[in-house]
Design brief:
Layout: H1 4-8, E1 17-18, E2 21-22, E3 24-25, H2 36-49, H3 59-79, E4 87-90, H4 93-103, E5 113-117, H5 126-135, E6 138-142, H6 152-158, E7 163-169, H7 181-190, E8 194-198, H8 210-213, E9 217-221, E10 232-236, H9 238-243, E11 254-257, E12 262-264, H10 278-294, H11 296-314, E13 320-323, E14 332-337, H12 342-351, E15 354-355, E16 357-359, H13 364-370, E17 375-379, H14 386-403
Parallel strand pairs: 3-15, 5-6, 5-7, 7-8, 8-9
Antiparallel strand pairs: 1-2, 4-10, 9-10, 11-12, 13-14, 14-17, 16-17
Helix pairs in contact: 2-10, 3-10, 4-5, 11-14, 12-14
The structure holds ligand 7TS.
């Protein structure tokens, strides 16, 4: 079993008081907190080897380049990509999805179809809508049921030779549903469609194996898995990355430039124009090392216990309804209380030191499905405790009394 109290000392922010109360941080779905090793690695980079990468012959530039490429290799091993050049650094999930959607503009024709799911974050909806507007392709939506699960019979029915790409999240940010992505990937391939998996909410909880999944693209952000903001990964199969055009033009993504014609660099540089977030790239490797030291089996065990305990405790509250009741679920609980706006609960419990997210969670179609303006979302990480859940339950009860 993990020694949670010891792990908590790795995270300086967790020992803070907020509004005079000990911080209870349950907004891990938005971004995770950072362990001291990650915070230190950012300083060390700037103190010791700060230089631009892939361009200088001087020692610092080489050290920075080496550290950046070592980190790429860590990511490759972590997600089990076949080739190093299939791992692209991006600024985050949103950027990765936009890069792929933009690339498909050169492939799609009017009459083609793009499939997204009813469970998507806006960043896995809007880029595909923009793509469809540009190309005349049609956006289709895989529906969900009342438990917040995608309906696989409907997915099977929607897939056809017209489907060119499917975009679905591995885990829903608003409800916590774990989607049957392996099934969905295999089915997409049966009709010749590509498939992108939005792993933003999965990577804090599990270690994706992109070769076993056989997905064409897998995107995620570093900041939800103990890493810094402004860094993320787009994994793409070599054949697809060779087929897609570059997203940004500029320095470092070229082989040769003349005013008549430019030829592009090989992967991964073709998609990495400009000076990247060098510190972020290096420190993402530190964050991945940290999480692997804790161990994803341990993380899952701890988070499942928190999920079960919080579900049981919250359901003690009269008039409380949980949205997202799939059997396959990660440590996210979205809930509302009869007759009370989620924002009001969030504001009161913040005064008691409890950080949750309230609102539509950038997933308005999910809120529309349930006919609600939003929810209160508590999202737990391995460093959270049952005692913190008790504090939240007490705070929610207090807010309910004040508001009804
Ligand atoms: N996809 C999913 C499933 C997400 O949960 C998020 C962020 C994104 C994409 C976008 O990631 P970004 O790093 O590019 O911004 N989700 C949330 C959330 O649930 N609360 O705040 C951000």
């Amino acid at each position: 079993m993990l020694d949670i109290q010891k792990i908590r000392t790795d995270f300086p922010v967790l020992s803070q008081k907020v509004n005079g109360k000990p911080l209870v941080y349950f907004d891990n779905g938005a971004t995770s907190q950072k362990p001291q090793v990650v915070i230190d690695a950012i300083s060390t980079y700037y103190q010791e080897i700060n230089a631009n990468i892939h361009r200088g012959v001087h020692t610092l530039s080489q050290l920075a380049t080496d550290a950046y490429e070592v980190s790429r290799a860590k990511v490759k091993n972590h997600i089990n990509a076949q080739f190093l050049h299939e791992v692209l650094f991006t600024s985050g999930t949103t950027f990765g999805i936009n890069l792929v959607a933009n690339g498909f503009a050169s492939i799609l024709k009017p009459g083609d179809e793009v499939l997204v799911s009813a469970l998507e974050h806006h960043s896995n909806i809007v880029p595909w809508q923009m793509l469809c507007e540009k190309t005349g392709a049609t956006l289709k939506v895989i529906p969900m049921n009342e438990n917040g699960e995608l309906i696989m019979e409907e997915y099977d029915r929607l897939l056809s030779p017209k489907t060119k790409i499917v975009a679905v999240n591995h885990i829903s940010n608003a409800l916590g549903t774990i989607n049957p992505v392996k099934y969905m990937i295999d089915k997409a391939h049966e009709v010749g469609a590509a498939i992108l998996i939005d792993g933003a909410q999965a990577v804090p909880h599990l270690k994706p194996d992109v070769q076993e999944l056989d997905c064409d693209f897998y995107v995620f952000s570093g900041h939800k898995m103990c890493g810094p903001t402004g860094i993320g990964i787009l994994y793409g199969k070599e054949a697809w990355l060779n087929k897609l055009p570059p997203y940004l033009g500029g320095g470092e993504m070229i082989k040769e430039v003349t005013f008549e014609k430019t030829t592009y660099a090989d992967l991964p540089h073709k998609f990495e124009a400009g000076t990247p977030n060098i510190a972020g790239g290096i420190v993402l490797g530190t964050a991945i090392d940290y999480m692997n030291e804790i161990g994803f089996d341990n993380i899952q065990k701890q988070e499942l216990e928190l999920l079960n305990y919080a579900t049981k405790r919250l359901l003690e509250i009269d008039g409380l309804q949980i949205f997202g009741t799939s059997e396959a679920k990660t440590s996210v609980i979205s809930f509302n209380i009869d007759g009370i706006h989620p924002y009001d609960i969030g504001t009161i419990i913040d005064k008691l030191g409890i950080a949750v997210r309230t609102g539509h969670h950038c997933a308005q179609p999910i809120m529309n499905f349930f006919g609600i303006p939003g929810t209160i979302r508590a999202s737990f990480s391995f460093y959270n405790t049952k005692e913190e859940i008790d504090l939240m339950v007490d705070a929610v009860k207090k807010a309910q009394m004040m508001l009804s």
